[in-house]
Amino acid sequence: MTHASTLSSPAAHQPRPAALARWLWAVALLVIIVVGVGGITRLTESGLSITEWRPVSGVLPPLNEADWIAEFEKYKQIPEYKEINLGMTLAGFKAIFFWEWLHRILGRVVGLAMVVPLAWYAWRRAIPAGYGVRLFALTSLVGLQGALGWWMVASGLEYRTDVSHFRLAAHLLTALFLLAGLVWTARDLDALARDTGARPARFTRGGIAVIAILFIQLLLGAWVAGLNAGFVASSWPLMNDHFVPEGIDWAGGPWLALTNDPFLIHFLHRWWSWIAGLALLLFARRLSRFGAKREAGLLVAVVAVQMLLGIWTVVSGVSMWVAVAHQVVGAILVAIAAAALHRLGRAAA
C-alpha cells in the first residue's frame, strides 16, 4: 500500500478520543502554569511594563540596549511610573518587564497548543461527532482571553496607576472557565474512549449550586488581587482587631462599597471561603457515596490546603510566594472541582 493510500484509508480518519483527551489535559496544565505566572506578574506590579499589544512582533523581548531604553521611555509615559515608580532604574524596569513578557509568551503558547492540534485532528477527521464545535469554542476562548488581557492592561495606561479590578476579574475568571471547560471535555473524551456509546456528562442542580458558590469566591478573590485588598489586614480571624473591619467606606452606598471597597471585599472573601469550603465538602461527601472516594478525598485535601494558604497569605502580609501558591492551588481546585462535578454529571447523563 502506498503512503498516499494509507493517509486516505478509513483507519486514518477514525475518531481518537483518548488522544484528544491527553491533549486537553496537557493544555489544562499549561493554563494552570499561566495562572501562576499571572499571579507573580500581579504581585510584582509588572503588568503595565509593556504598553503595547503586539501579538506577533511582541514575541521577542528587546534585544539590545537601545531597544530596552525605547521600551523604558514608553513606560515612563504612563501614570504608574510618574506617580509610583518615578526614578526607577533600567535594571528595575527589566525585572518587571520579564514577568509581563513571560506571561504574554505563555499565553501565546496556550493559543498555539490549542490551534495547531485542533487543526491537525480536524484535518485527520479524528474528532468524534459532536465535539468539533466544543473544541472550537474552547480554542476561541483562548483568543478571547488574550483580548481581555490587553483590555485589562489598557485600563492602566492613561488615567490610573493600576489596572481595573473588574477587568482583572474578567481576565482571571475567563482563564479559570477555560480550565474547567478543558477538564470537563477531557473527561467526556476519556469516557468515550472507554465506551463508544458514552454520552457527555450533564450538569446537576447540586452541581450548579456549587459552581455558583465557587464563582462568587473566585470573583471576590480576583477583586482582592486587583484592589490590593490583601494588604489592608494581616491578622486572622479578626481584621485589625475587629470582626467587621473599620475603614469600610459606605459613603457611596452599599453597592459601591460591595464592589470597590478593599476592606469590605477582603472581609467577604475571607468569610465566604467557609461557605464555599462547606459546599465543596458536602459535595465531596455525595461524591464518596457514588463510589468516587479517591476523588472525594482529593477534593477535601485541596480545599483544606487552599484555605490554609489563604490564611497564611493574610498573616504573612501577602508574601509573594505564599500568595502565588494560593492562586495556583485555587486553579487546581477549579480543575479538581470540574472533574468531580463531571463524575456526578456522568451518572445523570
UniProtKB/TrEMBL annotation:
Its EC number is 1.17.99.9. Pathway: Porphyrin-containing compound metabolism; heme A biosynthesis; heme A from heme O: step 1/1. It catalyses: Fe(II)-heme o + 2 A + H2O = Fe(II)-heme a + 2 AH2. The keyword Repeat does not apply. It is an enzyme of class 1 (oxidoreductase). GO terms for biological process: heme A biosynthetic process. The chain crosses the membrane at residues 20-40, 105-123, 135-153, 165-186, 207-233, 263-284, 296-315, 321-341. Heme binds at H269, H326. The keyword tRNA processing does not apply. InterPro entries: COX15/CtaA_fam, HemeA_Synthase_type2. Pfam families: COX15-CtaA. It is a multi-pass membrane protein. GO terms for cellular component: plasma membrane. Keywords: Cell membrane, Heme biosynthesis, Iron, Membrane, Metal-binding, Oxidoreductase, Transmembrane, Transmembrane helix. It is found in: Cell membrane; Membrane. One of its GO terms (molecular function) is metal ion binding. Its cofactor is heme b. Catalyzes the conversion of heme O to heme A by two successive hydroxylations of the methyl group at C8. The first hydroxylation forms heme I, the second hydroxylation results in an unstable dihydroxymethyl group, which spontaneously dehydrates, resulting in the formyl group of heme A. PANTHER family: CYTOCHROME C OXIDASE ASSEMBLY PROTEIN COX15, CYTOCHROME C OXIDASE ASSEMBLY PROTEIN COX15 HOMOLOG. Belongs to the COX15/CtaA family. Type 2 subfamily. Interacts with CtaB. This is Heme A synthase. It comes from Sphingopyxis bauzanensis.
